[in-house]
Each structure stands twice: as structure tokens, then as C-alpha cells.
Amino acid sequence: MADPEIPDFEMAHQWTARYVSLHLHPGRVRRTGCFGAVLNQNSPKARATWRFEILRGIKGRYISETADFDRDLVAWHEEKNHVDELLYMARNLDRLSPRVEPAELSIMLKGDEQVLTILNGSGIVELKATGVANEGGSRGVGFRVTMGVSYRAGAHNGSYVSRPEVQRTIDSGGTTTITTNRVVYTSPKRSRTWEYSKTVDVFHTDNVAQGWGASYIGVSNRKRTSGFIYRSGFARSVRDRLVLALAVADGTLDDMVTALEAERAELERI
Asked: Looking at the structure, do residues 21 and 52 belong to the same domain, yes or no?
């Protein structure tokens, strides 16, 4: 990405002197300065004030362009890093498994089922009705993971926000386990399973003020949409692993890798 052009202020002084003499001659233009007084049209102060105003405009434009460049650069780095992280995880699923013994897990694994992450101190949230809207926007590569589920890598400038009156926490203090076949929540009081084969929708919410995020998974065998909660600091990691698990279950992991590789190549050309 090219740096914004930095103005040559020495040349700017020469240019403004010529500009004032040719186009803003004090004898032709009346100027009320920022000090609230009408400047003498024939005084050197009039010329100096005009020059100062023009230079201040150039400096302001430079600062504005630099700020825009810095914001774009941060967004570019964030998007590229996210794509790189997703690519690494997609190519190295075996390395994502927590180092725990099977006996330490809160669930029994089935066949070649693989654990991608374990969330302690989790909980279950439920929506009584559909009440979710996306606020803000996002940028980056988007790709279909499975039916009803898509994902976008990169900087997300907004978040899904659920209406408080339709969301409730029905359990907390449990453990959520994300595997390549399902998501399972267990606690001393209750348990819940979301099977990927029955998934019809996935979305996320963020409550930054309270410091938690949530992932909702709509399944065909359950009337109400429910999900699990986790600390906000783990949001991206949890959601990346969930989308990888869905891709594995649906057989679209290779398509996801192809889309990420194409996006990475495009980012490298910028």
C-alpha cells in the first residue's frame, strides 16, 4: 500500500506567495481574519494571513489523508492476519485439539469426532422469538460454509445485537465443547446438544459492556433458537473454530481453504 504524498512545505510557501500575488491580491480581495478584524487590504499582514490560511488548509488535508491511510492500514493488517489464522487452522485441524485426556472431557466422542475447543464457565442463552439485527458493516472475504450458514473473514465493524426482551440466560457455569460433529453444553443442572447435521442457521451477538459474546445455532429439531456464551476476548477464536467445524461436517473445508487462499492473494496485491 502506497504512503500518502507528503507535501513539501518549502514549495508550499513559494506556491502560496505566487498564488497570493496573482489571485488573492489584497487590493482586490477583502479578508476578515480569524481574529475578528477586517484586515487592511494593503498591509503585509493581509498577505501573511492569506498564506497562513492556505498552508493550514494544506496541512489539514495532509493530516486527514494520513488518518484515513492509517485506518485503512490497520484494517488491512487485521483482515490479512485473520485470513492467515483461518488458513493455518483449516490446514492444521489436528493441532487445534486441546491437550486433554478423553476421561477429562465432559462428553464421549463418537468415531473420528475431534474436539476443536473447550469453553469453561460457559452458559446457555435462548431466544423466545426472532429478534436479531446486524448493526454496522464488515469487510473481507465471505464464503458459504453450509446451508444457511456463511462466514466473513476480516475486520467486522458492526455486530449482531439481539433485543433484550427476547433473550434470556437459562443456565451458566457449565462447559461448552465444540467438536467436528456438534456443540455440546454440560453443567450439573442441564445439558444441550446442537448437531451440525440439523443446523439451519448460525449467528453471533456481542455484549461488550458486560464482556461476553454468544453464538446461536438454530436446529431443525428445536423450536426456539438457543446458543452458548463465552468471554468477549475469545469471540473470534470461538467463532473461527465453530465455522471450521461446520465446514468439516458439511464437507466444504476445501472450498473454504480455496476462498481464503484467493483472498490472501488479493490482499498481497494491494
From this structure: yes
